[in-house]
Batch of 4 targets.
Target 1
Amino acid sequence: MKPIVPFVSEANEDERKAWSTALPTALKDIAEVKAFDTLSEQERSRATVAIVANPDPAKVAAMPNLVWVQSLWAGVERLTAELPQDGPLIVRLTDPQMAETMSEAVLAWSLYLHRDMPKYMTQQRQRVWLGHELLLPAHRTIAILGLGKLGIESARRLKSNGFNVIGWSRSEKSLDDIRTYCGQDGLETVLRQADSLVLLMPLTDETRGLLDSTAIEHCKPGATVINFARGPIIETPALIAALDRGQLSHAVLDVFDSEPLPPESPLWSNSNVTILPHISAPTITSTASQIVADNIRHFFQTGCLPESVDRKKGY
Ligand code: NAP
C-alpha cells in the first residue's frame, strides 16, 4: 500500500483545487495525496511528510510523527512564525523555473525604470512632449539585495542586458562580473552606489524594516526601488516620505505589509509608486508539483531530506 501524504492548506479555493489535481498526479507512483480534513486519526498519526500551503498550524500539530513539511511557496516567514521550533523541519519550494520567472520580472521592471516609463506616462496624461536624456544600461548600477536562488539568476539576467550589477547578501559571495558585499558596512556601500535597488531577500527578524529612514538616507538621491521580496522589509512611512521629498524617485512594489493592499493605503494614489498584486514570480503548479514529487520520492526511497530552513537564521 502506498504511503499517504497529507495536503494541508487554507489557501483560496481555486488554488486548493489546482493543487488537488496536480499533486496527486505528480505523486501517483509514490504516494496517495489526501486533503488533511479527509484523513482518519490513524492516517494523521502515520504521516511523516505533509505538503503545506498556508496551513492551519493546529492541523500540522495534529500529525505527531511528521518529520518535515514541504511548502508550496518560496517564502516561509509565515511557517517559521507559526510552527514550533521543535516541530517538523520546513522545506521551502526552490524551483529553477521560479528563478527564471523572477529574473524576467526583475529585468522587465528594471527596464521600465531605466527607460523612464513612469515619467512618460505622467507626461502623456498632461499632454507634454518632452524627451529625457537616455542613459546606457552600463551607466546604471542596479543592486540586488539578497543573492540566493532568485537574486543570483536576476543579477545574471541584468548583467547580460548590459547593466552594471552589484549584490549584497548575509554571507560573502563571489560571482563572475558582479561585485558583491555583505554585512552592515557592505549595505551602506551598496546603497550609496545604486541607481536602483532590487529586494530579493527573505523576511526574517534581521531583514524586517531593513530599509528604514536611516538606510534610505544612504541611498543615492533619486534612486529607485523594486520590492519583489516581502512588504515589511521596507518601512512604508519612510518610503513614502523619501518619495515625497525626492530622495527616492520611484518604487515598484509587488509585496506589502498587508495583502491585498487595503483600499485606504496611501500607496495606491502615490504617482511615484507602481503597484503590482504579488505577481512577480508566482508558484507554477506544473513545475512545482514535479519538484515536490521528486523531494518526497527521494525521502521515501533513501530517508534523506531536502535542504530545510535554518530556524536560527529564519530562512
Ligand atoms: P534564498 O535562496 O534563501 O536567498 C536569500 C538571500 O537573501 C541569500 O543570498 C541570503 O544571504 C540573503 N539574506 C538573508 N538574510 C539576509 C540579511 N539579514 N542580510 C543580507 N542578506 C540576507 O531565497 P530566494 O529563493 O532567492 O527567495 C528570496 C525571497 O523572495 C523569498 O524569501 C520570498 O520572500 C521572495 N519571493 C517573492 C516572490 C514574489 O512573487 N514576489 C516569489 C518568490 C519568492 P546568504 O546567501 O548569505 O544566505
Note: Residues 96-114 form the longest helix (19 residues).
Target 2
Amino acid sequence: MKHILSSLLFALAALIATAQPYLRHDNLDEVISAMTLQEKAGLLVGGGKEFRIKGVPAGRTRAIERLGIPATYLADGPAGVRVNHPCTGFPTGTLLASSWDVSLVEEIAAAIGNETHEYGVDLLLAPGMNIHRNPLCGRNFEYFSEDPLLTGLLGAAYVRGVQSQGVGATVKHFAANNQETSRTFTDVLVGERALREIYLKGFEIAVRQAAPWAVMASYNQLNGDYTQQKKSLLTGILREEWGFKGIVMTDWGKKKGTVKAVFAGNDLMEPGYDEEIERIVSAVNNGSLDIADVDRNVRRMLEYIVKTPSFERYTSSRKPDLAAHATLSRRAAAESMILLKNDGGLLPLSPGQRISFVNLSGKDFVAGGTGSGGIGKGGIVRPETALSKAGFVLDQEADVALALICRSAGEEKDRQLPDDFYLTSSERKGLDSLQFLGKKIVMILNTCGVVETASWKDIPDAILIPWAPGKEGANALADVLSGKVNPSGRLPMTLPVDYFDDPSSANFPYDAPPRMEKVEYQEGIYVGYRHFVTSGKKVSFPFGYGLSYTSFAYSKPKVKVLSGAIEARITVKNTGSVAGREVVQLYVGAPSGGLEKPVRELKAFAKTRLLAPGEKETLVLRLSPYDLASYNEQSSAWETADGKYRFLFSASVEEIRATASARLKKPQSWPVKRRCAPITELKEIRL
Ligand code: BGC
C-alpha cells in the first residue's frame, strides 16, 4: 500500500513538473518562465506576411501552441481596414481632419474598428499621425494636419473609436517621418524643442488621452539613431514621460539593429524574419543582451495578446454592416469638404440644374491614395453617376461647369512641383478656355495633397476641396453641390502662395534626389501657419479657413482661469438662411518674457451642432496651463510665462472674430526628467 501511494505521489509530482501553463490573463509570469529562449525571441519577431484569411496581409505575431499563445493579425488603415473582403473605403485622414470634428472622427473610427473586428484582425495599423511638414510629402493624405493639437485630438478620437470595438489601434509613424524620399534611412536632424512641440506633441496627446494598444516606430533615423532603436524615444519619452503601456513595433523593414531595438524597448519586429530571432538568441547567449530586456518585452507582448479577439477565440461574422458604413462615410465626407470660394453664392446649385462636367486632369476620380494607406479597388462611385443620381443634368453645353483636378499620391514617393503641386499646362488651358467661354466655374480639388491655388483662384466662381473622400466621396460631393449638406470643413493646413514660401522647402526633396542621407528641420517650430502668421508672409488661403452656405456671429467671449484650468466660452449664432455648423478655433498669443513663440498658436477648438437659421449654441473650450507651455531646451522643461495671454476666437488663423485676455499669475515649469503627470492630473495643478 505504502509503495503504491509513493508511486502515485511521484507520478503526480512528475506531472506537475511537466505541466505547461496555458496563457490566461493572470498567469503571464508563469508563462514567461515556461518559455524557451527561442520561443521568447520568436514572440518578439512577427510571423511574416502570411495571413489566415487570404489577401492584403500586413503582418502577424507568432503562435506558441503548447502555451496557449495564439497568433494575432495586423492590417492597415487608416482609411478603413485593408483585407481581401469587401471593406468600406472611408475618407482619408486629411479629409477627416478637415472636419475639425472630434466626435465624427471617433464615429468613423468605430466603424473602421468594427470592420477590423469582423474580419478577424486584432490590431489596426492606424491612425497615421505625422505632421504635414511640407505640402509635397507623398503620404500627407493619410495624416491629419500641419498642427500638432489638431493631429493629437483627432488621433486620440480615432484610437478611442477603433478600440471601442475590442481591437487595437497603432499610432504611427513614431516619429518625424515627414517625407517618403529615402524614408528607410534618412537622418532627420531636428532640435529638441521643435521635436517635442511639433513632431511628438500629437503622439503625446493620443497616448495620454486614448492609450493606444500599439505604437509603430518609423523607418527613419532621428538625430543619429533609427527611431526603432532609440531608447530615449521609445522608453524615455514614450513610456517614462507619457506613461505608454502598450507595445512598440517596427515599421515594415528589415533592419540590422534587432538587438538594439529590443534593448530600446521595441517589442515587435515586423513583418518579421527568422534571422531576427537568431540575432536575439545569440545576443542573449553571448551576453550582449540581458534576458531581463527580452522578458520585459515578452511580457508586454503577452499583455497585448490577452486583450485580442484572437485570444478570446472570437469567430467573426465577417459581415459588418457595410451599408450603414457607406452612409456614414458619405455623411462624414460631405460635412468635411472645404468651400474655399463661393462668389455670388453660386453654390449650392439649383435642383435639376444643367451642368457640364469637365475632368481637367483626364484621370480617374481619386477616392484614396496608394500604398498601405490606400483603400483598394472597386466600388468607387463615379462623379458623373453621383451627379446624375442627385438630379443634375450633365450637358457639355451648360452654363455652369464643374472642373475637376485629380491627384493621387502614396507611399514611397513624394509629390513633385511640376504637373503635381502646380497645375499641368493642359489643366490650366482647360480652365482658361472655360473662362473664355464665359461659364460659371466650380473648381473641385480632388487631390491627395495641397496644390498651388494663388495663380488661378481668381478665375473660378467657386472652389471646393473634397481631397480624397473615400469610395462614397462622389455621392458626398453631389450632396454638397446640391445643398443637401452644408459643408463645414476647414483647412487643416496652410495653402501657401508659392511652394517656396514654405520654410521647409529649403530642406525638402522637392527636386526628387535619388538619395537623401539627412534632412535638417532648420525651420524649427515655424511649421505651417506658425511661420506665416509670425513672418506676416501672405498666403493663398490660411490655416483653418473654410466657408459655409450660411454665416455666423460670435458673442463676446469669456475666459476664466480656474484652479489649474482655463475655461473659455463663446456663443455662436447662425445669422444666415440655411442650417450650418461653425468651427470656433481658439488661438492663444503668449505674453513676452518667456520663450520666443509664434505670434499665436491653436490651443483649442470646438464645432457647433447643426444650427438652424437664428439658432445659437454656447461652446465651452477647456485647456490647462500645460497646454500653453513651450519646451525650454536649456532647462529640459515645459514652461509657461506669467502675464497676460490673449485668447483669439477665430474662424481661421487670420480671421479673428472675438478676443479676450486672462492672466497667469506666476510662471510654471514641468521638467521632463521626472515623470510628467497625465493631463488629467495636470489640470489640478494650481496657477
Ligand atoms: C508602412 C506602414 C504600414 C506597413 C504595413 C509600411 O511600409 O510605412 O504604414 O502600416 O507598411 O503595411
Note: The pocket of beta-D-glucopyranose is lined by residues 58, 76, 125, 172, 251-252, 372, 411 (CB under 6 Å).
Target 3
Amino acid sequence: MQNNTFSGLFIGRNLITLKEVDSTNTFLKNALSKSTPLFDGTVIMAESQLAGRGQSGNSWLSEAGKNLTFSILLNPNFLAIDRQFDLNMAISLAMNDFLNKYTAGGAIIKWPNDCYIGNKKIGGILIENIVHGNIIKHAIIGIGLNVNQEDFPAGLKNVTSLKQALHQDYNLVHLLGEICSIIEARYLQLKAENADKLRDEYLSQLYLKDEWALFRFENQIQSGKIRGITAIGQLILETTEGLRYFNNKEIEFIN
Ligand code: BTN
C-alpha cells in the first residue's frame, strides 16, 4: 500500500501494512537479502506478529490489532559501525519525544533503549544493522509500542500502554505518522551534527541516572549509580568499588 498522508520527507512515505507476519524486522531482513528494491524510510507495519522479536533473544508479545508493531528501513551510510549506539540514541530520544508529548513529560529512556512511562515499560526498540565494510548499509529499526491494549499476560511485569496510562483509545496509523516525523527529525539531527548533543539529551532522559539503585551483575544484587554511557553504548556504573562498565546482557535492573 502506498501512503501519501505522512508529513515527513521520507520516513513512512512508503508504508506497507501487513495483516499478519512473523516479525516486521524479519520481513525487512528477508526482503533485503533477496535484493528487493526498497526506498530509504520504508515502513512495514503489522496488525499481528506471530513471532515478534525483542532484545536479547526474547519474544515481543502484542495483542493483534491493538498496538503498533512496525519496522523502518534506514540506509545510514554516513555512520560507521562503531557509531551504532549514536543511532540507538537518536531513535530512543525520538520515541521519548513522542511519549513526552502524550504524557506531559512523563517519559523516560531505560538503557539501552526501552521506552518507559514512570517505572513501566510501554515500548521497545530492536535495531538490526546490515554492515558493508565498516559502514552501516541498512538499519532495520523495529519498534513495538503498547497503545490500546488493556490487559497483559500475568507473566509480563511492569508494562503499560497509552490506554492504561491515559484512558483513551488512539488511532494507530495517526500515531505512526507522528512517530515517523519525530524519528526523521532526530535522524536528520544525527546526520547533520556530531552526536554530542544527542548524547547529552539521551543522558538527561535516562532512567535512574545519578541515583543509587539495585542491579544484578556477576550473579549478585549490588547497588550502583548510573554515571554515563561510553561511545560504544556501555553503561558506566559507579559502585562501592569504583566505576564499572557493562554491555547490555551483563547487567539487569532490579525494580
Ligand atoms: C524489546 O525487547 O524491548 C524490543 C522490542 C521490539 C519489538 C518490535 S515489534 C516490531 C519489530 N518486529 C519485531 O519482531 N520486533 C520489533
Note: The chain has two domains: 2-204, 212-253.
Target 4
Amino acid sequence: METSCDDTCAAVLEDDRIRANVISSQTNLHAKWGGVVPDIAKRAHAERIEGVIAEALKRARVTMEQIEVIAVTQGPGLAIALGVGIDKAKELAARYQKKMVAVNHVEGHIWSNLLKNGKGLPERQIIFPALALTVSGGHTKLVKIEAFGKYQILGETLDDAAGEALDKAAKMMGLGYPGGPIIERLAQKGDKHFLELPRPMMQGKSLDFSFSGLKTSFYYQIREWPKEKVGGHLADLAASFQEAVLETLVKKLVRAVEKTEPKTLMVSGGVAANLALRKKLRVVAENYGLPLYLPFKKELNTDNAAMIGLVGFFKAKRGEYVENAVSLDRAARLELVTGLSD
Ligand code: KG4
Ligand code: ZN
C-alpha cells in the first residue's frame, strides 16, 4: 500500500512480479489548488483505500487470506496521508494475522526498475555498484548502491525537487497540475534557447542540486510580461525551463558516473517518465557503455504500490519485518538508511 502523496495505491506481487497494480489518482482534486493539499489528500485516501485494495486483490485473483506479507509506505511523505495507509495495513495485519514490512518511499522508487510483469519480464541483472538517480515531485537524489540496503547518498536537492520545480514553473505560466507532463508536451514545439536560464550549482564538484534559483530566475524574467506574451510563448518557455532542469540532472549524473565508476545506471521517479530526459540518459549510457534501467512501464515511474511491494519482498526475504506492528508510526521525513558505516 502507498498513500504518501496524492495517489491511493495498492498492488499484489508474487515475489518481484506484478500481479495487480491499482492506482487511484487524486490529480483532479488538487489541480485547482496548483499542488497537493494534505487535508484533501487524506480524506480521499480514506475514502478510496478499501476499494483500491479490493480491486487489486480481485485483479490478482487472490483473497486476503492468501496474502503472505503486507508492505506499506512508512515515509517520507505527507504525514496525515501516510497515516491512512499505515492504519489500514495495521488493521489488515491484525485481522488476518499477517506480517508487516515498512518501506521507505524513495527506496521504492530506486528499485522500481526491477519490477517485472506477470510473466517475469523484463529480466534484468544489476551489476554493482549501481548508480541511481531518483527524480520525482518530492525527491532528487543520486545514490550509489553497493547492494540492496547498502547506499551512499552522493547528492540531493538542497531545496526544490526537480518535479517540484517543473510543477512551480507550470503554475507561473498558468498551466495545470502536475506541471511535468504538461511542460513536456509543450516543450516539444518550443525553442529551448528562448530564455537564458541558469544551470544551478554547476561550479565545483558538488553532486547536490538546487532548483529554487532557477525557478526564481524564470519568475523574474517573465513576471512583467503581459498575459498575451506569456500565452504566445508557452512552448518556448516550457522548452527553456525543461532544458535547464534536464541538463542539470544529466550533468550531475555524468559527474557521478565519473566519480564512482558504476556498472549499472538506474533512473526512476515521476520525472523519469519524461521522454526528453530518457533521450539524454541513453546518450550518457551509450557514452560510458553502461546498461540503463528505467521502469518497464510508464505508470511505474510515478507513485505506485508495486514498487513498495518489491522493496517489501526484498526486506521480507531478509527477515526485516516490523517487530511490533501496532506501534509502527508514520515518518514524514524518513531518511534512507544507508547501511554503511561512513
Ligand atoms: O514520483 P511521483 O509520482 O511523486 C513523488 O514521489 O513526488 O512524481 C511526481 C512528479 C511531479 O512533479 C510531476 O510533475 C513529475 O513527477 N512528472 C513529470 C512527468 N510525469 C510526471 N515530469 C516531467 N515529465 C513527465 N513526463
Ligand atoms: Zn514518489
Note: The chain is about 40% helix and 15% strand.
